[in-house]
Each structure stands twice: as structure tokens, then as C-alpha cells.
Specification:
Helix content is about 25%, strand content about 40%. The chain has helices at about 15-25, 50-60; strands spanning about 1-10, 30-35, 40-50, 70-75, 85. Strands 4-1-3-2-5 form a 5-stranded mixed sheet, with helices on one face. The longest helix is centred in the first third of the chain and has 11 residues, at about 15-25. The radius of gyration is 11 Å and the shape is globular.
Length: about 90
């Protein structure tokens, strides 16, 4: 089990990025959340199987069709997150 916090920058707000990230995370059995930050980035926190977290990171570099991802910064953490995957 692993946890990671991703900060995604680019054109990632207003393009269904959070909802799409949620769908991708749930498809991989991950728990966590996705939320817009005031600086225009999206924060995605994911916890679960390490291979699934890595797969989600790969998807975050692409995002949904309307998005333009410029950068994804990953920070590992040891804390667990609640069940499910929430968009806030």
C-alpha cells in the first residue's frame, strides 16, 4: 500500500480534470480525493496498490481531452486516506 500527493499544473481547471481523475482512480481501486487549488493547479491524493498509483500518475500527465498538463509533481506519504474517492 502506498500513498502519493500529486500537484498537477497547466490547463487543468474547468476541463473535467477532477471528475476524470476520480473515475481513473476508482477504476484502479484507489482511495483519495481531487480538488482545485486557488493557484490554478489540481491536487490529487491517491492511496492503494503502488502499481495502481503509478498508473494513475501516468494518466495525470495526459488528463482528459480538454486538459493541457504542463507538470505533475509527486510527493509520497505514509498516511492512509478515507475510503472512496472524493472530488472537492
Amino acid at each position: 500500500m502506498t500513498g502519493a500527493r500529486f500537484l498537477v499544473s497547466g490547463k487543468v481547471q474547468g476541463v473535467f480534470f477532477r471528475a476524470s481523475a476520480r473515475n481513473q482512480a476508482l477504476k484502479r481501486g484507489l482511495r483519495g480525493y481531487a480538488k482545485n487549488l486557488s493557484d490554478g493547479r489540481v491536487e490529487v491524493v491517491a492511496c492503494g496498490d503502488s502499481a495502481a498509483v503509478d498508473e494513475l500518475e501516468q494518466w495525470l500527465w495526459e488528463g482528459p481531452p480538454e486538459a493541457r498538463v504542463d507538470d505533475v509533481v509527486r510527493h509520497e506519504f505514509d498516511n492512509d486516506v478515507p475510503s472512496g474517492f472524493v472530488v472537492t
